[in-house]
Amino acid sequence: MPDSSMWPADYQSAAVFTFDLDADEIWNLRIEGDEEWDKPPVKTRGNFGPNVAVPRIIELFDRYDLNCTFFIPGKVAEDWPETVQKIHDAGHEIGLHGYRHVNPANSTREEEEADVKRSLDIFDDLVGTTPVGYRSPAADLSNNTLEILAEQGVQYESSFLDNDVPYFHDLGDDRLLEIPFEWSLDDWPFFGFHMYPQLSYQSGISSTGPVFDSWEREFDALHKRGRCFMLTMHPQLIGRAGRMDALEELLQRVLQTGDTWVTTGEDLATHWYERHG
């Protein structure tokens, strides 16, 4: 039997739709590290996210009167302030995703702390709100990350893969909520691809249908068990027209249950602290 006591009244499960808005930053870092990547198509391919995909995502969720979560590097916010403002004005959550799209495990404690503070200040100055959520830009953390986030007032993070419901990290005097993610519920392994040069880990572009069939099956199984469906997407990948249609069909499937709480990471964290904190 599902444990619906975890969620607000009348809901059996939860679903959080998240978008990592890496834009051109994820490609700029490759260009800086290897001249082989220093080509016009590489420099511009990330622009599809802010220019085309984000408006499509905003329009989709607006039609269903739902909010989602965008994790955004501070550098992307500086480079695309109008896009970030549109996301905020549409009522969607903005979470931290590093300053640049680099692995925090390769930084000193001082560097990582400065990175978090800098990003918090950028969003506070840009949209007037301070993010309460964090997702690592590399799906990796240092031994200091959780403590730094808690010290800076961040309420939750989403980089662990060890559960399918939220739980607390015990940090001594502090606690930090974890909302886990899962690679099989991330679009990058399926759609992340570049021809020249190639990404070292890519295996080809997956067909849209089987990917979304897998995601729908996973949602159904999690809903049956009263768990949390956390979907991780990247606008420059998921924002292609056919994938957006498939995303809408998945969203409709989630809503058809009638008892799935479609929410943001921030609202889920607020509920969890109030109910389970």
UniProtKB/TrEMBL annotation:
Which GO terms fall under biological process for this protein?
Answer: carbohydrate metabolic process
Question: CDD domains, alphabetically?
Answer: CE4_HpPgdA_like
Which molecular function term from Gene Ontology is one that the record holds?
Answer: hydrolase activity, acting on carbon-nitrogen (but not peptide) bonds
Domain of life of the native organism: Archaea
Enumerate the spans annotated as NodB homology domain.
40-262
Task: Give coiled-coil spans as residue ranges.
Answer: none
Name of this protein: Polysaccharide deacetylase
